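Students often ask why inverse folding is considered easier than folding. One informal answer: many sequences map to the same fold, so there is more than one right answer. In these notes we will look at a single instance of the problem. The structure comes first.
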């Protein structure tokens, strides 16, 4: 009897995971399309601008990679594109010509704020059927999930 209960709980948790995954992928796909169509941009480029917006003094490339949980190589191409578009600037750190901090330009901050406003509006529309009470409940329930890297090994 106990084994059957455990199996039912495991099945329910699997269903929860699959539902979260389906919703996440659907929302992410919609946001990617809207960013591409409205701004000629990508979600990773938006994420870089968002990370830099939160730290006005800028971040070293390694810090930015760490914040976004991606490799330096992934960030380098995005930063190069943003520099070319005058959204981000590279600033040398002290006397070390190899060490650079990347930060938003004024134009980059303005562009990000416009994109962020649209992003927020799109999410509001996508999650339109969730009221404030449901949102609070979802946040509370999902806060119970705390998976740390390596914990499942």
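Output (designed amino acids):
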């Amino acid at each position: 009897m106990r084994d059957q209960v455990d199996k039912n709980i495991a099945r329910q948790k699997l269903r929860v995971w699959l539902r979260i995954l389906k919703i996440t992928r659907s929302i992410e796909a919609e946001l990617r399309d809207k960013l591409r169509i409205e701004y000629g941009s990508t979600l990773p480029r938006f994420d870089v601008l968002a990370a830099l917006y939160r730290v006005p003094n800028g971040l070293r490339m390694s810090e930015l990679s760490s914040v976004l949980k991606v490799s330096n190589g992934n960030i380098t191409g995005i930063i190069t594109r943003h520099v070319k578009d005058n959204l981000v600037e590279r600033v040398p750190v002290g006397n070390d010509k190899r060490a650079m901090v990347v930060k938003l330009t004024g134009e980059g901050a303005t562009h990000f704020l416009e994109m962020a406003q649209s992003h927020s509006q799109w999410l509001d529309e996508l999650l339109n059927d969730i009221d404030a009470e449901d949102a609070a409940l979802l946040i509370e329930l999902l806060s119970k999930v705390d998976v740390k890297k390596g914990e499942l090994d």
